[in-house]
Amino acid sequence: MFLKVQLPWNVVIPAESLDMKGLMLQKSIVVRLLEDFASRKATKDLGYYLALTTLESVGEGKVRQQTGDVLFPVVFSAVTFKLFRGEIAEGVVHKVLKHGVFLSCGPVENMYLSKMKMPDYDYVPGENPVFMNRKMSKIEKGTTVRFIVIGTKWLEAQREFQALVGLHADYLGPVS
Q1: N or C terminus of the chain with fewer C-beta within 10 Å?
Q2: Domain range holding 10?
Q3: Residues 53, 109: one domain?
């Protein structure tokens, strides 16, 4: 679920902001790194970028000939979020359909729990549709559900993951 990773990255400081020295240059590098980190969202291998924790090292800057900008190689530690097949997690239902429900878990918003993967639950239509079992346990909009990840899919164009989840193991289902 949560991964601590160490990443090499290149930070480009524009030529117009290079009048500064010492600590101000360090600050410029850190601010640019944070901006770049926040704009990336996710990768297939590491999952969603959540937090940059420490700046490990800053290499020697190299001036770009055409623009005069300076490129600094940096190494930093970060925390990422990625779901793995077979993992148990919890998510919140945000849409109930006749054939299943959509959940969100952390930054993953497109998790599908099919009616076929909810043993003993039946669809109850109405203004606020729900899935209910014989013990009167409900899965409705806003319900927190513990599930197992069956599979994930990376969508390159949107830079996000989709997941298929199920309730076919012990202690899975709505959380009170």
Answers
A1: C
A2: 2-81
A3: no
The pTM score is 0.85
Residue 27: which CATH number?
3.30.1490.120
CATH at 106: 2.40.50.140
What are the start-end ranges of the E strands in 14-159? 42-43, 47-58, 62-63, 70-81, 88-97, 100-105, 108-114, 122-124, 130-132, 138-139, 144-155
Q: Is pLDDT of 10 > 90?
A: yes
Burial class (CB in 10 A: 0-12, 13-18, 19+), 139: buried
Q: Are residues 95 and 120 in the same domain?
A: yes
Question: What digits encode the pLDDT tens for the residues 97-149?
Answer: 999 999 999 999 999 999 999 989 999 999 999 999 999 999 999 999 999 99
| 23: pLDDT strictly greater than 90 | no
The owner of tokens 């043993």 is 119
Domains of the chain: total: 2
- Domain limit, last residue, from 22, 53, 81: 81
**Most distant CA pair in the chain: distance in Å?**
71
Indicate the residue among 81, 110, 136 that finishes a domain: 81
- How many Cα neighbours within 13 Å face the side chain of 79? 6
pLDDT digits (tens, 9 = 90+) for 40-60: 899 999 999 999 999 999 999
